[in-house]
Amino acid sequence: MLPSPKLSLTSEELIALEHQWGVKNYVPLPVVLKRGEGVWVWDVAGKKYLDMMSAYSAISFGHCHPRILATLIDQAHMISLCSRAYYNDILPRFLEKLCTITGMQRAIPMNTGTEAVETAIKAARRWGYMVKKIPDNQAEIIVCSENFHGRTIGIISFSSEPNYKKGFGPFLPGFKSVPFGDAKALEAAITPNTCAVLTEPIQGEAGIIVPPKGWLKSIEQICRKNNVLLLVDEVQSGLGRTGEILACDHENVKPDGVILGKALGGGYIPVSALVGSDELMGVFTPGSHGSTFGGNPLAAAIGLKSLELLEEERLCERSAKMGQYLMSQLQQINSPIVKDIRGLGLWIGVEINTEKVSARNLCEQLLKLGILSKETHESVLRFAPPLIISQEELDWVLQRIRQVLSAS
Ligand SMILES: *Cc1c(COP(=O)(O)O)cnc(C)c1O
């Protein structure tokens, strides 16, 4: 068989092709990836890179994990999709695992993180009317400024990022925004119509912003005191990224609802879920919510295998240990352009003084040295490698980060 001519295009040709036919809603770094294995990826010319970005934490298990791949292939041979019009033999086991690993009572499967956030908002509003008895259409949800919860009209309605909102109005009412990390402001924003607080435990897209110690615990207490639900978006922070199953676990916080996604798909397909208390999840009645693909056998099998691997490969411990190592090594780099280094587990943001060099420029320099990273908001370098990364691999990365930061 003759090879298809399309298979031999160069990086430049492929980038030009994408620019011609695609929509310009991203500005990718100039690398065209073709293959991935563990923490490594290769471009079309065969050059190797260490992935310190992990597809925004969706590749926590590394690229093409052999056991998730085997699960995917096995399940694809059995049955992949049958809709929730019928039961399937994998979904109940996935739901059980989701609940036991997070200490929750019920779970509802979705596909993308955004959909699971929307699901949480719907659940909270319904709980507000059915259980808290808020007057019809008056329910309010408190969110934090600089949040990132997704891209639907509903979710961008309560974003504070002009770039996410411009030209997309009119927006959805019913949200109040308070500064992230400010428990007093949050308490002051509560009214009798408040049904829920929705927050990330650490703000990822805002630039890996870690709130003051004890903040999440204090909002949990404020929520309890005021009969308000606590919904935590752990789409990026969850499943070992911070060194615990949930970032909430660091402060022993028990939310009413937890939103999971990204790594739950094992690096293969979108799998998300809202897990929560019986009381919250009980508001969904037949027909009130759903998804054609949510909970399909292929997604459920991959989600279940991902959660099992998280435990079997002790990835939380590894994230905590390697994260501490990476953090301590980064802190020892003496560079005038580094303003701040923050994070938890294998999730670290390095804030750059952008007067001399942009974070984007640093990412491009790192790319040339074989490291995939990504800037966040012009001034933050994001490091979030697969949780399977070894100390030797981190040393390999650190050597190059030192080189770039000290040369700038
Ligand atoms: C990525 C992300 C989402 C959205 O997930 P998608 O799968 O892109 O829809 C929601 N919340 C947080 C905190 C995220 O990081």
Question: Mind explaining what this structure looks like?
Answer:
With 408 residues, this protein is of the alpha/beta class. The chain folds into 2 domains: 11-61 and 314-407, Aspartate Aminotransferase, domain 1; 66-312, Aspartate Aminotransferase, domain 2, CATH 3.40.640.10. It has 14 helices and 15 strands. It has helices spanning 11-21, 54-57, 66-78, 91-102, 113-130, 153-156, 162-165, 183-189, 215-225, 278-281, 297-312, 315-331, 359-368, 391-407, and strands spanning 33-37, 40-43, 48-51, 106-110, 140-144, 175-178, 194-199, 229-233, 257-260, 272-276, 338-343, 348-352, 371-372, 374-376, 380-383. The strands form 3 sheets. The chain has a 7-stranded mixed sheet with strand order 4-10-9-8-7-5-6, sandwiched between helices. The chain has a 4-stranded mixed sheet with strand order 1-2-3-13. β7, α9 (215-225) and β8 (229-233) form a beta-alpha-beta unit. α3 runs antiparallel to α11, α4 runs parallel beside α11 and α12 packs parallel to α14. The longest helix has 18 residues, at 113-130. The protein is globular and about 60 Å long. The protein starts with 10 loop residues before the first helix and ends with a helix. The mean pLDDT is 97. The structure holds pyridoxal-5'-phosphate. Pyridoxal-5'-phosphate binds at residues 56, 112-114, 117, 148-150, 200, 204-205, 233, 235-236, 261-262, 270.
